[in-house]
Design brief:
single chain; seven-stranded mixed sheet; 0% helix; globular
Amino acid sequence: QVQLVESGGGLVQAGGSLRLSCAASGSIFSINAMGWYRQAPGKQRELVATITSGGSTNYADSVKGRFTISRDNAKNTVYLQMNSLNPQDTAVYYCSAKPDWALGYSYWGQGTQVTVSS
């Protein structure tokens, strides 16, 4: 089992920045990728960004150039730096982890709310 705990959400004005953190614990040796997803009210959960154990990253088109995903292996923590936020970024952001035995992301955090005011 892997436990994921997010932090760093909050309320910010449009154009502002936030950094989300996700601390992983448990059977982290099995994780080969981690990611951030988000879900806005009335919408499906969508991919924001992912990072592999080798450091390769992938971003949704809507956040490219504004968000940066990174990881600190020593701290077992993944970050999402979000710049130039706009109201469309308002959502609950979830950290997720993909174990090497799974086809997809199998572990999820509890989510952290990000609200961007106009």
